[in-house]
Specification:
The protein is an all-beta fold and 384 residues long. It has four domains: 116 residues, no CATH class; 89 residues, no CATH class; 62 residues, Thrombin, subunit H (Beta Barrel), CATH 2.40.10; 112 residues, Lipocalin (Beta Barrel). Helices cover 0% and strands 47% of the residues. 30% of the residues are buried.
């Protein structure tokens, strides 16, 4: 995803492990129509000169000059000259690039790993990349349907194109990918082995997705859940059911809706009041009870009282982004408003800085609220 700083700018970055250093990450800045980068201390590493930039990933940052893209390192040195029509972020030492209709894989130095013979869709998940084989014809010259398959990190076909359509693998190895084949939804593993087949039916019903290692399946009148071996993890006994999320699912026993865990055990009523709405971050989980929000610890206990927020988010760098009275601020882990709600927009404190927008312009602040870099969009002119 290309980052463009205009209007209400927002982007998300992944928190790096270990002690933060000023030179271990780059933060995009904009002056006029051009983009550059600062480090965590606010020093300009790359003066604004690019037309678009990406997010730092594995020590490389995608940059775009005109319509072509390449990569720089965290010192601002150009590693790959802008020469690709499209370029993606690095994953596992690999990046997907395209020049005209040719998709390829390159390594961190820009060296070609392999050309990919099909159109690429999406990114690598569990080491596999979805591709689309189109433009095929039969012996009579009639166009054949587009098929989907997967290549591995060496660029070789791991699962030949055969499905129509196919979903990407999830990042959770407990789940299977799915694809359409002979009017069945087929659920398959990383080798392409089909584990479960579910008929699409006369109406070509949409596929359910694996979630938390469970697949919602109907048998006769009832719903249940299968595991990744194709066996029933939770027998088909419910009048209705929903997909799992964060380890829980809603099911209907008779006329009553209850919550169950991935083993099929009912969740007691007193433990269902607070519902997690985001993954745990820095030991706390954002949860909801009715129209109020709070953060719970590993034992499920509230870190501080439930409150009403217009928005609330997970903790990063010891700060949680919240919105009150139409403006953003940040709380600490005691529930105190550590940085006042004075910002029109704000990002989470990932990598130690937050990007904020004020009435005067845009800026980066540290977890204490100190401004480390700012750009005044419309500076005031003093008349004499």
């Amino acid at each position: 995803m290309t980052l463009r700083l205009f209007g209400l700018f927002y982007f998300a970055l992944v928190l790096a492990p270990g002690q933060p250093r000023a030179n271990d990450h780059l933060f995009p800045i904009r002056e006029g129509r051009k983009f550059g980068f600062i480090n965590r201390a606010g020093a300009v590493v790359v003066p604004p000169q690019y037309d678009a930039v990406g997010e730092p990933s594995e020590g490389r940052v995608r940059i775009t000059a005109g319509t072509l893209s390449g990569y720089i390192d965290l010192a601002g040195k150009v590693i790959v000259d802008p020469k690709y029509d499209t370029a993606e972020d690095f994953q596992g030492g690999r990046a997907i690039v395209r020049k005209e209709s040719q998709y390829s894989l390159i390594d961190l130095s820009g060296k070609l790993i392999a050309d990919i013979p099909h159109r690429v869709l999406g990114q690598f998940h569990q080491g596999l990349l979805r591709v689309q084989a189109s433009g095929r014809t039969d012996a009579n010259g009639r166009k054949l349907p587009t098929l989907y398959g997967f290549v591995d990190t060496s660029g070789k076909l791991a699962i030949p194109p055969q499905f129509m359509p196919a979903g990407e693998f999830s990042d959770d190895p407990a789940n299977l990918a799915f694809g359409g084949l002979d009017h069945d939804w087929c659920y398959f593993d990383r080798t392409g082995k089909i584990v479960i087949r579910v008929s699409m039916g006369e109406h070509l019903t949409a596929a359910n997705l694996f979630s938390n290692g469970r697949l919602l399946v109907k048998e006769g009148f009832n719903w249940g859940y299968k595991d990744t071996t194709g066996n029933w993890a939770i027998p088909a006994k419910y009048n209705d059911a929903q997909n799992f999320k964060d380890g829980f699912a809603r099911v209907q026993e008779g006329a009553k809706w209850i919550m169950i865990d991935v083993q099929g055990n009912p969740i007691p009523e007193d433990k269902r009041k607070l519902k997690p709405i985001e993954p745990a971050s820095e030991g706390l989980t954002l949860s909801r009870e009715g129209d109020v929000l709070g953060w719970t610890d590993a034992k499920g206990e509230l870190a501080f009282p439930l409150r009403k927020y217009e928005e609330a988010h997970s903790f990063f760098s010891g700060r949680a982004r919240i919105k009150l009275d139409g403006l953003y601020g940040f709380m600490d882990k005691t529930g105190a408003l550590k940085i006042p709600n004075i910002y029109y927009s704000a990002s989470d404190f990932q990598h130690g800085l937050s990007f904020v927008q004020t009435r005067e312009g845009i800026a980066y602040i540290d977890p204490e609220g100190k401004v480390v870099w700012k750009y005044v969009q419309n500076p005031k002119v003093e008349l004499r």
